[in-house]
UniProtKB/TrEMBL annotation:
Organism: freshwater metagenome
PANTHER family referenced in this protein's UniProt entry, alphabetically: ALKALINE PHOSPHATASE LIKE PROTEIN, UNDECAPRENYL PHOSPHATE TRANSPORTER A
Gene Ontology CC annotation, any one: plasma membrane
Membrane topology qualifier: Multi-pass membrane protein
Stated name of the protein: Unannotated protein
Residue ranges occupied by any VTT domain in the UniProt entry: 50-178
Pfam family, one: VTT_dom
Principal location listed in the UniProt entry: membrane
Record lineage: unclassified sequences, metagenomes, ecological metagenomes
Subcellular location: Cell membrane
Keywords: Cell membrane, Membrane, Transmembrane, Transmembrane helix
Length: 222
């Protein structure tokens, strides 16, 4: 039985699963082997809506079916993560500080001092942000852009990205490998984690907007 057939059986006969990200990822892995897993994760980095919590367990599940080895699944998905991250890093380099400031000035409710404080924070904590950011949904891709804007040394960026990605990918690939046909249960757990992260970010953004709007309404002191 192929991985696609098992996937179809494990999703309660819902054909939309096969027509979506899961079906596309499994087909890519079956056609290209571990290289397909790497390509899928590289694309996930470039397009954050593609969920790593589906692709990585699927890579582990596909490895459990003998399409490729567990080690190949981990190595190739981690390589894909690094490739996707370095593309976004160079996008940040091309964007540069000057363009970033010009774009920032066009955004509503923002001040130059906000960006300056963000840059100062990244200067102090950039290495931790890149490393741990690789383990936070959505931000695991986006963190590469400010690293490029701030011209973090390339080798340092690659080392931190490799380390963080290796941890994240190994956990999910192993989970998919161990769960086998029940690989999709991983998404239930990480889905809660993602919602918490997005909720906290949304709450922080709402508080920031309210504080900024109130500050604009306060008349300057004479």
């Amino acid at each position: 039985m192929t991985a696609t057939a098992v996937l179809a059986a494990s999703t309660s006969g819902d054909p939309t699963e096969l027509d979506g990200v899961a079906g596309w990822a499994v087909d890519l892995m079956e056609r290209l082997g571990p290289l397909g897993a790497g390509i899928a994760i590289a694309l996930e980095n470039l397009f954050p809506p593609l969920p790593s919590e589906i692709i990585l367990p699927l890579a582990g599940f596909t490895a459990s079916r003998g399409t490729f080895s567990l080690a190949e699944a981990i190595v190739w998905t981690t390589a894909g993560s690094v490739v996707g991250a370095i593309v976004l890093y160079w996008l940040g380099v091309l964007l540069g500080r000057d363009r970033m400031y010009r774009i920032w000035d066009l955004l509503p409710l923002t001040k130059t001092s906000d960006l300056e404080r963000t840059e100062a924070w990244f200067g102090r904590h950039g290495r931790k942000a890149v490393f741990f950011g690789r383990m936070v949904p959505i931000f695991r891709s986006l963190i590469s852009v400010p690293a490029g804007v701030e011209r973090m040394p390339v080798l340092q960026f690659l080392g931190l990205t490799l380390a963080g990605s290796l941890i994240w990918n190994t956990v999910f690939v192993l989970a998919g490998y161990q769960l086998g046909e029940q690989w999709f249960r991983v998404e239930d757990v990480i889905g809660t984690y993602k919602y918490v992260v997005v909720g906290l970010v949304g709450l922080a953004l709402c508080v920031w907007v309210l504080v900024r709007v109130r500050s604009l309404r306060v008349p300057p002191e004479a």
